[in-house]
Amino acid sequence: MRTITQFNDGWRFAKPGEEERAVTLPHTWNAADGQDGGNDYWRGCAVYTKRFPMPAHAADERVFIEFRGAAMSCDVTLNGVALARHEGGYSTFRADMTDALAAENELRVAVDNSANGRVYPQMADFTFYGGLYRDVNLIAVPEQHFELLKDGTPGIKVTPRVDLTSRSASVMVETWQNGGAEVWVEIATEQGREFRRVDAQSGHAVTNVTLRNVHLWDGVDDPYLYTVTAKLMRGGVCLDEISARFGCRAFRMDPAQGFLLNGRSYPLRGVSRHQDLIGKGNALSRADHEADMAVVRELGANTLRLAHYQHAQEFYDLCDENGIIVWAEIPYITKHMSGGKQNAQDQMRELITQCYNHPCVVCWGLSNEITVNGMSEELLADHKELNALCHSMDDTRPTVMAHAFMLEKDSPLIPVADIASYNLYFGWYLGELSQNDSFFDEYHAMYPDRVIGFSEYGADANAQFHASKPEQGDYTEEYQCVYHEHLLRCIEQRPYLWATHVWNLFDFAADGRDEGGKKGQNQKGLVEFDHKTKKDAFYLYKAAWSKEPFVHLCGKRYAERAEETTQIKVYSNRPEVTLLVDGRELATLAAQRVFTFTVPLSGTHRIEAVSGALRDEMELRRVAEPNAAYRFGGGGTVANWFDEDSFKSGFYSVRDTLGDLMKNPGTAAIVGRIMAKASSSRGEVAQGAAGNKALQQMMAVMSFESLLKKAGANVISPEQVKAINDALQQIPKG
């Protein structure tokens, strides 16, 4: 029978030119430099070695080594014998060690995350950590065993098809094996067990089992899982045994009704997740995954977009167990590579093979914002082939793409996948909040028979920055709240959106970024990079999605305020909230989710929000001058840069549109330098997108002043803005 032994201890690690040091897996070499900014984290080929005696196994058994994740490519050698090469940093792969084993062994794994034109991803707004960052296992199996090598397969594939009318499910079970005369398949049910004996033909066995009175996998309400066990038999003796969990559910995406689960409307409302943590990078433990899932459940989300690559099998398991519906995807992202076609197909084949049995997964993501650096016939053709591959492997799930907001609504790329979603950032990077609403209204009117969703939206916030009058681009918790309050209303007014995913659940590493007071981080998370500190916007979504009664006072970190009266906001899923100031009732309000009170300030005050037995409290202090630490860059609002006498008629200024400024060679030279500086602060993705024609058209109609404001004070200070305006004012129009 097969045995699985964790192989994480006793490794040595070295970068080129460095001494070996002891490490325990999971491990990444970019846990520090991949999170500190500068876009200078080390990318190269490093070597892991392990010396070990002959593993315990019977003479007629084979020994495989299993890597759950090696980023991004690796070569595996045992005692000088090449065992495997794998390209793709997010999927499981295995190698047969048996014939190369000796009494004493040295395993060498060369892992490489350096830049190339072949393996995805190569350009994206997140750090490409290098290392053996997931578990490594030894698997001993009999000579005749279920398949282990092909695309990291679990050896068993389960396809349930539900008939809601008869409340039954037809379950097709397939296995692949090396040897053995027959396969026994058993499914444990609430009524007993369903058993089949199947003759194996050419290493493949197929059987169908009908489940009566099927217990549905019903999302967060009832994520019921069945277990199927397969035994490889010869002469009545069990040679090998494997099992898989599966769920029986029916779902579809409708252009008008959105997502339907088991015959009823089931709006998918949730977040996206990256697999990293401050100080640890992507070398996460089982406990880290469980802690992340606990945050998802507290939020009340019922869907996750697991971006932008295959996540750990432990996390898909947690999604199965908790009823979280998942969008799974490969890292075909941002920049199409002519040399990357095979790798995109390889990673998709591995994703589907390894994640097929998870009932949580409802779609396969082909790519993300792949047109940011331009569109081509090759890109379109590669997507069509990738889409066909998905359907050849799985006829039960649709394909999907996440499109950048600047992709034209009539692009021929959009209908390649079965369904689509858009990443929109109106109200943060550019434009106004209302443009999110109008975008979807226009798209839905143009294509009423297409399924459309909202795959990314968000605004960066640093929990130390605050403002009583928040503004777009100020990185305050308060503006993030204003942003998400609008977007939540936008979503709820459009039930046709098949799924919506906040970008992001957690802040995450993007080493090329330098904005909002933190280097190397994308701060759009509802929770900070420690995965513990919840920003106020987190509680807005908890109020909308969670059934757990609560009240939350916003602005606890905004303790010092230089104003006579201040606005106090409470998020709650209760119908009524009372605000107490220094123990005395100020007011009681009835509202939906957002309760806003006006409170006079004169000194130090204890503020309490109460609803029944629920209570939250904080302390506020009136101060004489605004606390500079609350403002990004330590300055005041960026709204009042100029007096009206700063502008001479007949000359250019920052109040002209970007399009007009770029038409004049003199003003274009000034503006071009500033735009390059602004895009560089947001990493190489922003720099790559700068040449996108659709984006240029959107920006051309905006005033240069508004664009500078969005860049932020750490990129362009108020003094620099005034200097830019002075320079523009020297150039006459016409």
Task: List the strand order in the largest sheet.
Answer: 30-29-28-27-26-25-24-31
What is the percentage of strand-forming residues?
A: 25-35%
**CATH-defined topology of the largest domain:** TIM Barrel
- Count of helical segments? 13
CATH fourth-tier homologous superfamily of the largest domain: Glycosidases
- Summed up, the domain count is 5
Overall pLDDT: 93
Q: Judging by the overall fold, what is the CATH architecture of the largest domain?
A: Alpha-Beta Barrel
Question: How far apart lie the N and C ends?
Answer: 85 Å
Spatial extent as radius of gyration: 28 Å
Helix content: 10-25%
- Mass-distribution shape: globular
Q: What is the top-level CATH class of the largest domain?
A: Alpha Beta
Low-confidence stretches: 635-641
What would you say this structure looks like, in words?
With 734 residues, the protein is an alpha+beta fold. The protein contains 13 helices and 41 strands. The protein folds into 5 domains: 3-144, Galactose-binding domain-like (Jelly Rolls, Sandwich); 165-246, Immunoglobulins (Immunoglobulin-like), CATH 2.60.40; 251-548, Alpha-Beta Barrel (TIM Barrel), CATH 3.20.20; 560-629, Immunoglobulins (Immunoglobulin-like); 638-728, no CATH class. Helix content is 20%, strand content 33%. The strands form 10 sheets. The chain has an 8-stranded parallel sheet with strand order 30-29-28-27-26-25-24-31.
